[in-house]
Amino acid sequence: xxxxxxxxxxxxxSGGAAALPAPLAPARVVxxxxxxxxxxxxxxxxxxxxxxxxxxxxxxxxxRDAAARxxRDAAARPPALPGAPVPARPLLGREEELERLVRLLGRGRSVRLTxxxxxxxxxxLDEVAAQCAGLAPDGVVRLSGYGHQQPAELLxxxxxxxxxxxxxxxxxxxxxxxVRDIGAVVLLDDLEMGGVALDELLRATPECAYLLAATPDTxxxxxxxxxxxxxxxxxxxxxxxxxxxxxxxxALTEAEAxxxxxxxxxxxxxxxxxxxxxxxxxxxxxxxxTDEADDEEEPGVFEERPRDTAQVxxxxxxxxxxxxxxxxxxxxxxxxxxxxxACALGGELPHHAHLPALVGDTHADSAVAELLGCGLLxxxxxxxxxxxxxxxxxxxxGYGDTAAEEARTAxxxxxxxxxxxxxxxxxxxxxxxxxxxxxxxxxxxxxxxLARTAAPAFAASLHWExxxxxxxxxxxxxxxxxxxxxxxxxxxxxxxxxxxxxxxxRARAELETSIGLRGALADKRGTVAGRRALxxxxxxxxxxxxxxxxxRLEAPALPPAAGVTAPALPKGSGASEALxxxxxxxRPPVKSAMARPAAAGAPAAASEAVTRVAPVVPVTRRQExxxxxxxVFEDAFPLSPKPAPAPAPGPVAGRxxxxxAADSGRRRRALLAGAGALAVVxxxxxxxxALASSDSEPPAQGPAVSTSPTxxxxxxxxxxxxxxxxxxxxxxxxEPPAQSTAPGATAGAPTPGRTPSRTPSxxxxxxxxxxPASSSAPVPPTSAGPTPSDSPSASAVPTxxxxxxxxxxxxxxxxxxxxxxxxxxxxxx
Length: 829
Fold this sequence. Notes:
By secondary structure, the chain is an alpha/beta fold. It has 27 helices and 15 strands. Helix 8 crosses helix 10 (271-288) and helix 24 (504-520) packs antiparallel against helix 25.
């Protein structure tokens, strides 16, 4: 053998006793077909999903024949247990129910068998399966509804049982199409769903006849389901005694028969109670009774202590109604350890091959047969769990005190076992309930490790309900433990699972979360895998979205009103132009209805409605810096487009119509005029403040030249306020002109109701202002500026005026007024 390459020589490949087994693969990588995708389950880096390549889709799967169905049924049964074989329990007192069930199923009717836990529903289903083997073309299918609240997983299990479909998980549409053609008698034990979910299961398989075994507390089917009801009650007195004698293996004494009659009354004749009662009597016989060969020997010869001659009495009625504590006290230590593990896992008992490692005893695998013979276990599909009421009775006596430690031990054991390459995914799927129970009771570190190794196995086994549950539990445990990388892995797997099941919203959310976490960790390979899966989600969303119809700019034709004619629109109007939307790509122009020529003698647009569409005007920035104030305003405050007014009918030929260009010119000239007015106002305010703040007094008297009417001005005495009346009336003086006239400027009227006054300087003065030495001053011309008054408190009021004239006329006037009422006070308006 080539030890370097790891390949066998041709002599070894030919076969023979000396041939060595092939080495195990380092990782369990499985490629599956999930609907329209190819799913590669990789335990190391995460699952990868890609579209199914053309030509690789398999055809219609073939159905299994009778031999293949028998082999699958045998594989689905519980495995043979080591140790003493458990005797078969006879079916007593159920002949009437058995005959009715077989008759209804033979007619194609679905039946719901309702009975309390421990009433023998599973044993009755075994007899029904034996008598209905040849009724349907696809035989009898045994399913377990334990833990299933929705019909999706049950439909997939039914599909796998009838069809030859390995490594293929069809989508929902294909599964519904395949199971519709199945004609079988389906025995569904431990049903937990009802109502709408049960109706969906029945509608999906119209050619199947169902026997649904459920407890009374299960939700009832809907009224329109047309399901027959058969109630399974307790056994009679004779059947109870016969079942008890069959379990003990001998005839009952009078005391034992009386005790059995009382037990039947207390337990309402449930068969499970008499199986447990038979185990109590067998244990009592083993303690009290010995063989004759043992009696001939002298006691104490081969024993360290003499035998106890005390007789164990019959159990009390309370011990017979709740016998779990008494039965557990008389079994082996390995069996009691197995019971503790089952209590820690919520009633789920691991496969007997795991008990030696979990218990620490090499012979612990025989404890399952011992517990099953005592009636402490019941069959659920291919596995076992604690019987009804046993877990509660054991927890009351202390079997659940070490639940946390037992769950942690089971989680670490299953983490090693599920990650081993020699364990195929089907074996992991058969142990799904125990694995999930261990995952729920373990600490966060053990839970993350177990979920990380069990998730790829569940995915490869096509048990996607368990895959979903283990991924959710693992993501929560990773979040609590602070394992960001493991949390990203679980979210990625949840996104892939949701994509395979067609839940696009869920897939997008999970994949985006995973990509964000892996981006924070700089995981390039994982980020690329997540983005590939997210691209598939985007493609699916785009394919499923209904494309909306394009925008229709032309309105539907309307009939013309009688006696009403619409004026023909001009040829150059905007309604007849091609509408184009500015953008990165050019679109063909869409012509409106009015671009079509009108028939001769008919109104131009009388038969069509006019829909006015406002064009989109993009705001463009100037490439060159603005040079004028109007350009600054235009860049800072772009004009919003307004619809142009409707043009008047009958334009003059050759005369251009007013369009957006004319409006733009008028707005620009108006803005220019406004900007000039604002500049003049600012200049006038500066000049007024400068003149008002001058410390020198104007000449006392001078000729006043003004074209405005005069007004009586009463000067105020120094030291008095403006509201005090003067001592003596003053002579009337002429009011200074309201504005200076300049060539080419118009004179403005004075503001009525105001008295122009001088605003004194704000700087404090130690002495009162003195008049100038010379009382004579040159007389200013009329157009040079303001004329001072002879009153000391009166001041000239400059009124600058600016006029901006363009193609349109705009005039703005600003007036500054200063008032002085006395020393130390001043007001500027």
